[in-house]
């Protein structure tokens, strides 16, 4: 698959037989994050032009599924977990534990490549941020966000997400 190593080659440029052969030859890892946490991170990084979180969320909702940024599009639309059988799904907030397992499976020493990860602090910080920012949203925005990310919420175990019904 020489074309695979060419810059800009996308999986969609191959036929179904080639795609199946390529995907079967790789270990596929998908990193997932609570959609509401992704929105908070995107807002804090200044990727939206809005001055308030509520305005930013309205911008996201107005852009819709097809015109939105990859920073906030639902993961299901980006990673196709229903079509690609991932070998591992790693959840943000459990990186230290899950990356350690992946390194072990690859035959590498756990501590050799892992950066210092403080998952519990990250989880606590996002919980606090989520509470603060979720309270800024209108009831309608909350309902629309839950609908916008419904397939992510169904596909991945984000049970503590503020967007879960």
Can you tag this structure with a few keywords?
EC 2.8.2.-, two-stranded parallel ribbon, transmembrane, Carb_sulfotrans_8-10, 165 residues, 52% helix, 2 strands
List the uncertain runs: none
> What proportion strand?
under 5%
Q: What string gives the helices and strands in order?
A: HEHHHEHHHHH
Percent helix, as a range, is: 40-55%
Distance between the termini: 44 Å
- The total count of helices amounts to 9
Major sheet strand order: 1-2
Based on helices, strands and strand pairing, what is the structural class? mainly alpha
Look at the structure and give the mean pLDDT. 81
Radius of gyration: 18 Å
Total number of β-strand segments? 2
How many independent structural domains?
Answer: 1
Shape: globular
Q: What's the main sheet like?
A: 2 strands, parallel
Structure description:
The protein is mainly alpha-helical and 165 residues long. A two-stranded parallel sheet has the order 1-2. Helix 3 packs parallel to helix 8. It is globular.
What's this, in brief?
This protein is mostly helical and 165 residues long. The protein has 9 helices and 2 strands. Helix 3 (53-67) runs parallel beside helix 8.
